[in-house]
Structures are given as C-alpha cells and as structure tokens.
From TrEMBL:
Belongs to the TRAFAC class TrmE-Era-EngA-EngB-Septin-like GTPase superfamily. AIG1/Toc34/Toc159-like paraseptin GTPase family. IAN subfamily. Residues 10-210 form the AIG1-type G domain. Pfam families: AIG1. GO terms for molecular function: GTP binding. This is AIG1-type G domain-containing protein. The lineage of its organism: Eukaryota, Metazoa, Chordata, Craniata, Vertebrata. It comes from Paramormyrops kingsleyae. Signal peptide: none annotated. It comes from the Eukaryota. CDD domains: AIG1. Keywords: GTP-binding, Nucleotide-binding.
C-alpha cells in the first residue's frame, strides 16, 4: 500500500530530483512547477535550482545530473558525483524530500537497483528516510495501476519501493494541466516531513557520507600504488 500519514501543512517545500539519465527528471520538475523552468533537451550537466509558488506553497526544485543506467558509482564521473552531493546544499535547511525518478515504461533490474542504491548513498546511509520513488510517463501504465506495475516488475523494484518506506508517486508529464497530480505529490512531501518529526535531510548527514566516500577512494588509490610498486 502507498504510504499515508498525518501531514504538516508547510508554506515552503524543497525537493531534489535524483535518478539515471533520461528518466524524465527535468520534465518532472517542469510539471511540479507548472511551467518550463528546466531544459529538457540534452543532458543536465550541473545542478539547476528553480522556485515558484505552487498550490499556496513556495516550492523549490533542484534538478541534478543523471548517472548512466546500470552504472556502478565507481564508473560515474567524479564531477557528476560532486554535483549529486552538492544538490542538497542548494536547499537551505536541507531538502524536505528527495525523489528517485524512474520511468514507468523502462525495466528495473537488479543491476539498476544496485546503481540507485550506490548513488543515493553518496549522500548518506540515512537518505532513505527522506526519499520517495517518482514514476514518470504515467500515461504508459495503460489500464494497470502503479501497484500492479510495482508487483509485476519484480523483486528489484519492490525492494526500492520498500526501502523508501513504500512512498511513491506517479506523474504524467504529458498532462501539465492536471494540478491534482502535483497537489497530491506535495501532500506526500508534507506527510514525509511529518513522519520525520519535521526534520529535513541535513548537510551534516551528507558531509559525513561524502567524507567516507573520499576516504575510501583514497585508500583504494593507495592500495593500487602499493600493488604497482610491489610488481616493479
């Protein structure tokens, strides 16, 4: 079942969109804000932040560079990883929610699952308390419900949805005029904030994780140097 909880009525909401390339992050940002704020042609190379009043709330959306589908975090360019980590700093006091953006018409394999997990945990191991799965291209569901899609897609997608506390939402980016889908999304963000007792994802959580990642890379490099010296 989709997540339902008492919610806080907030005047300001801050959202970060994360996910692989070509999943529809920029289009989702435009749908949420109700106008063309993000460029949808070509690849997003740097974080982009846009703000607008939506349904009586001041909404901030941060779009981020996507990683290649199925890529391990080790294969993702360092600049892209830095931008992903930087994204939360663009939200004063931290984002209220981080959306993992997936296309409803694309398969989601175990390799995809590991890729999402690795990239999300660049931010923190605790990031999952603040995440919601956002499915784009909702029109491709046809007669199926999103619950039927999640069940049919397999264990990898069910794991991801479960890891996000069974929080998910569907957007049809072809129906920008449908304000209900956006209002319901914002309400789910408010429910998430209420569940977290008003806490947002903090920069402190993010920095601790990034420092661990940098230290791991340093040790890996030193290990490789040691092996090289040993060979010679």
């Amino acid at each position: 079942r989709n997540y339902k909880s008492p919610r806080s009525n907030l005047s300001e909401l801050r959202i970060v969109l994360l996910g692989g390339r070509w999943t529809g992050k920029s289009s989702a940002g435009n749908t949420i804000l109700g106008r063309e704020e993000f460029v949808t042609e070509g690849r997003t190379a740097q974080c982009v932040k846009r703000q607008r009043e939506v349904a009586g709330r001041q909404v901030t959306v941060v779009d981020t560079p996507g990683w290649r589908k199925s890529w391990s975090v080790e294969n993702t360019p360092e600049l892209d990883k830095q931008e992903i980590v930087h994204s939360v700093s663009l939200c004063p006091r931290g984002p209220c929610a981080l959306f993992i953006v997936l296309r409803v018409d694309a398969s989601f394999t175990e390799t995809d699952r590991r890729s999402v997990e690795e990239h999300l945990e660049l931010l923190s191991k605790t990031v999952w308390r603040h995440t919601i799965v956002l499915f784009t291209r909702g029109d491709r569901l046809g007669d199926r419900t999103i619950e039927q899609h999640i069940e049919a897609e397999g264990e990898a997608l069910r794991w991801l949805v479960g890891k996000c506390g069974n929080r998910y939402h569907v957007l049809n980016n072809e129906m920008r005029g449908d304000v209900t889908q956006v209002t319901e999304l914002l309400e789910k963000v408010e429910e998430l904030v209420a569940r977290n007792s008003g806490r947002h994802f903090t920069v402190g959580e993010r920095m601790e994780s990034w420092e661990d990642h940098v230290e791991s890379d340093r040790l890996h490099c030193n290990s490789n140097k040691f092996i090289t010296v040993g060979i010679h």
